[in-house]
Give the backbone structure.
Amino acid sequence: MHVHIFWDALSPPGLQMPVSRIISSLLGVLTTVSDNPVRMMGYVTARKQIDAQALLDSIQAYKHRHGIDDPVLLVVHQDLFRDGNSFVFGLARQQVGAAVVSSARLSNEYYGLRSNDDDLIDRITKEGAHEIGHMLGLDHCEKHECIMFKPDTLDELDRKKKMLCPDCSARLAEILSSD
Ligand SMILES: [Zn+2]
Ligand SMILES: [Zn+2]
């Protein structure tokens, strides 16, 4: 089993290799990264956002068409929303192994601050690892520093560490060994 990371053409360039490498060592899974072959769906012009569920549908259809069973994480630059949430950093559909993360609200520029690639790599890594954790079968965790904690703000995301807490780590080891 390995995790496919698809990188949208307009996602921050040059960051896909470090993101892929850090996620791989953080979760202890193999990752490969490539240009995104999935059709971009769900853009809502009036909101200037993508409906994350429509994008997950598109990933699901792509996986089905190409017979891909391994989990797929798509990284996009457009802002995402879902029904009931004005925005989401990312979203996973565990049962089909599809997930999406947006870099839109992860950059310093979005908040009027000076851009910094290290910050961006750090945040995409945390969000990506979180959604992959869901695809592998992990639920949300209450420990603020754990990757599986659900952040509502950038501050909460920044406060997380690039690690699973001992409980989530043990749970993942159990899942991966029963594979
Ligand atoms: Zn989550
Ligand atoms: Zn945890």
Observations:
- The longest strand covers residues 2-7.
- The domain at 2-139 is CATH 3.40.390.10 (Collagenase (Catalytic Domain)).
- The chain has one domain: 2-139.
